[in-house]
């Protein structure tokens, strides 16, 4: 097989793709020598078309996935921040709706976003929202499905989480900010100091984001790893003495957080 | 390199879940969720819709609900954008399986991908990147097309690219490369006439010359789209395949010539950003239909 020139690729074979891609995300690297313009023309601007396509399309993908974050920061700030992220963390999957999984962590560390400490939590809710949007369609467990279980067995039941269900905990009022930023209403002043935990669910086609009551996040987190209801409730009481077990169960079922109920060994 | 037993487009057995809408005689548009309600209210006849496969590779949710709805009433064309068929590294087996799953799930009338690459190493670049045309790349791309066709059990339509630069190491013309791929793999072709016009302008060749050497008899679908204008380093016109505006007059003229030569071919208006409203997009499809009707005599096209 004739050689194609250039550096060796994954399989030990030469690779035009390695040469071509090296400068795509790095504006300081010069135009690859494997390409040229036609009829002895220069290829600098021509190559930059690809550079621009790659960077701009990935920034656009993040802008589409994090609209509340963008609304809070403004377009210019968001695109500058996203450009940094894209260059250090390009996607590793062709499924762009999975891109940006660690974008919230990046925002949390981003030097210029330090004055908005709740921004990364809003982005975490948005990332969970997108996961819920694409999650499998499964009929959620209905409140009546639990009604037939004898009360003495309730501590032993295990609730299977719906594929869309996510919990996001925030030291700030991230749920309130998220909800306000995704609505079309005018921007209003929001007091962001109160911690809020988000429950993200999708029982039909609409993704829902609601605030969990005190102890709700720790309760649901324990349930989601397969702990029995009684043990999860104890963990919730330990964190939050005001934990209201019936109200929490009712709220989670109304949100469609589970798909099935199983009985654990007592 | 083996030929496949290929199920002809549109022939769907009773065991399948969706109606067997034939794509013959239809002009289509890119399917965008923003248009769903307007499309359902309008109920265009003799239409088809094309979707980017990767947008439907999630497990469930609104994208699948929308596509299910559309697929009940229309044939669809499944257009892969990220298979990286033109890349030097092996195809992503998981991605190939996802592509096959979509073909099985939606029973598309047409299945297509690009002569380009988008992934290298572990990085996905989200663009259709160019490749040199050599004996080595020909063998590799043919092997990749074989793998895709074998996996999905269908003929793949391969789309000609729009490009902005060349690889001096190339030893074959693009049309010779594509013709040889058809011979080796039995794949069909998706002729993107806007891409031909964009590349012709960018590389200084005549689009009719390219089309004269293109294996038109293997074309199973045509793409029409809009392009944007920039300048190259010498200050001369450089066209960008932008899919964000109406089809250019020069592209309509080339389309007219091709339909005059070949007769009807399923034709799609591609529009991916700065979307018009549904009537605006449908008007572009109607313009294509008008050209087709002028050439295809005695065609029973419902008004």
Topology diagram in text:
The complex is a heterodimer of chains A (266) and B (303).
Chain A: H1 16-21, H2 44-65, H3 67-73, H4 75-88, H5 103-109, H6 119-134, H7 143-147, E1 157-161, E2 166-170, H8 174-182, E3 196-201, E4 208-211, H9 216-224, H10 229-239, H11 245-255, E5 258-263
Antiparallel strand pairs in A: 1-5, 2-3, 3-4
Helix pairs in contact in A: 2-4, 3-4, 3-6, 3-8, 5-6, 6-8, 9-10
Chain B: E1 27-30, H1 36-42, E2 47-52, H2 62-73, E3 76-79, H3 93-106, E4 110-114, E5 117-120, E6 123-129, H4 135-152, E7 157-159, H5 174-185, E8 188-192, H6 193-203, H7 207-212, E9 219-225, E10 228-231, E11 237-240, H8 249-262, E12 267-270, H9 278-295
Parallel strand pairs in B: 1-2, 1-12, 2-3, 3-4, 4-7, 7-8, 8-9, 9-12
Antiparallel strand pairs in B: 5-6, 10-11
Overview of the structural elements:
- The complex is a heterodimer of chains A (266) and B (303).
- Chain A folds into two domains: 1-116, no CATH class; 136-266, no CATH class.
- Chain A is built from eleven helices and five strands.
- Chain A has helices spanning 16-21, 44-65, 67-73, 75-88, 103-109, 119-134, 143-147, 174-182, 216-224, 229-239, 245-255; strands spanning 157-161, 166-170, 196-201, 208-211, 258-263.
- In chain A, the strands form two sheets. Chain A has a three-stranded antiparallel β-sheet, sandwiched between helices. In chain A, strands 1-5 form a two-stranded antiparallel ribbon.
- In chain A, a hairpin with a 6-residue loop joins β3 and β4.
- In chain A, α3 (67-73) crosses α4 (75-88), α3 (67-73) runs antiparallel to α6 (119-134) and α3 (67-73) crosses α8 (174-182).
- In chain A, 42% of the residues are buried.
- Chain B has one domain (27-295): TIM Barrel.
- Chain B has helices at residues 36-42, 62-73, 93-106, 135-152, 174-185, 193-203, 207-212, 249-262, 278-295, and strands at 27-30, 47-52, 76-79, 110-114, 117-120, 123-129, 157-159, 188-192, 219-225, 228-231, 237-240, 267-270.
- In chain B, the strands form three sheets. Chain B has an eight-stranded parallel barrel, surrounded by four helices. A two-stranded antiparallel ribbon of chain B has the order 5-6. Chain B has a two-stranded antiparallel ribbon with strand order 10-11.
- In chain B, α4 crosses α5 and α8 (249-262) packs across α9 (278-295).
- Chains A and B meet through α1, α2 and α6 of A and α2, β5, β6 and α4 of B.
């Amino acid at each position: 097989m004739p050689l194609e020139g250039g550096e060796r690729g994954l399989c030990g074979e030469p690779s035009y793709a390695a040469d071509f891609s090296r400068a795509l995300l790095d504006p300081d690297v010069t135009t690859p020598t494997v390409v040229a313009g036609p009829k002895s023309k220069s290829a600098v601007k021509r190559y930059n078309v690809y550079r621009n396509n790659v960077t701009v399309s990935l920034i656009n993908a993040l802008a589409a996935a994090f609209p509340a974050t963008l609304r809070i920061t403004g377009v210019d700030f968001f695109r500058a921040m996203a450009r940094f992220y894209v260059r250090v963390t390009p996607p590793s999957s062709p499924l762009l709706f999975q891109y940006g999984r660690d974008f919230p962590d990046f925002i949390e560390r981003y030097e210029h976003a330090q004055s908005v400490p709740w921004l990364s939590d809003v982005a975490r809710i948005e990332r969970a929202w997108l996961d819920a949007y694409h999650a499998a369609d499964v009929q959620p467990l209905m409140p009546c499905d639990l009604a037939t279980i004898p009360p003495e067995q309730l501590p032993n039941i295990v609730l299977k989480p719906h594929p869309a269900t996510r919990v996001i905990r925030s030291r700030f009022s991230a749920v309130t900010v998220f909800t306000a930023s995704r609505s079309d209403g005018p921007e209003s002043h929001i007091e962001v100091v109160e911690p809020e935990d988000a429950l993200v669910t999708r029982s039909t086609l609409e993704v829902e984001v609601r605030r969990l009551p005190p102890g709700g996040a720790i309760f649901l987190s324990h349930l989601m790893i397969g702990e029995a209801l009684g043990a999860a409730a104890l963990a919730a009481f330990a964190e939050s003495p005001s934990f209201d077990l019936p109200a929490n169960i009712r709220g989670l079922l109304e949100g469609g957080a589970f798909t099935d109920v199983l009985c654990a060994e007592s | 390199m083996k030929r496949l037993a290929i199920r002809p487009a549109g022939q769907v057995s009773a065991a399948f879940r969706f109606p067997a809408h034939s794509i013959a005689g239809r002009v289509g548009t890119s399917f965008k969720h923003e248009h769903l309600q307007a499309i359902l209210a309008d109920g265009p006849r003799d239409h088809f819709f094309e979707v980017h496969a990767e947008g439907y590779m999630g497990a469930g949710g609104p994208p699948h609900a929308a596509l299910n709805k559309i697929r009940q009433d229309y044939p669809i064309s499944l257009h892969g954008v990220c298979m990286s068929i033109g890349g030097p590294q092996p195809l992503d087996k998981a991605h190939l399986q996802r592509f096959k799953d979509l073909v099985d799930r939606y029973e598309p009338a047409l299945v297509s991908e690009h002569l380009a690459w988008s992934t290298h190493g572990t990085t996905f670049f989200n663009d259709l990147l160019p490749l040199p045309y050599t004996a080595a790349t020909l063998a590799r791309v043919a092997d990749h097309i074989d793998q895709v066709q074998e996996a999905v059990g269908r003929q793949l339509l391969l789309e000609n690219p729009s490009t902005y630069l060349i690889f001096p190491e190339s030893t074959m013309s693009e049309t010779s490369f594509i013709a040889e791929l058809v011979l080796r793999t039995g794949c069909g072709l998706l002729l993107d006439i806007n891409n031909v016009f964009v590349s012709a302008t960018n590389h200084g060749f005549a689009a009719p010359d390219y089309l004269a050497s293109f294996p038109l008899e293997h074309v199973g679908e045509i793409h029409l789209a809009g392009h944007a204008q920039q300048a190259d380093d010498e200050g001369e016109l450089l066209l960008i395949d932008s899919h964000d505006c109406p089809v250019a007059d020069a592209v309509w003229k080339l389309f007219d010539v091709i339909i005059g030569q070949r007769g009807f071919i399923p034709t799609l208006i591609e529009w991916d950003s700065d979307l018009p409203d549904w009537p605006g997009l449908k008007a572009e499809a109607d313009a294509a239909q008008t050209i087709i009707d002028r050439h295809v005599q005695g065609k029973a096209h419902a008004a």
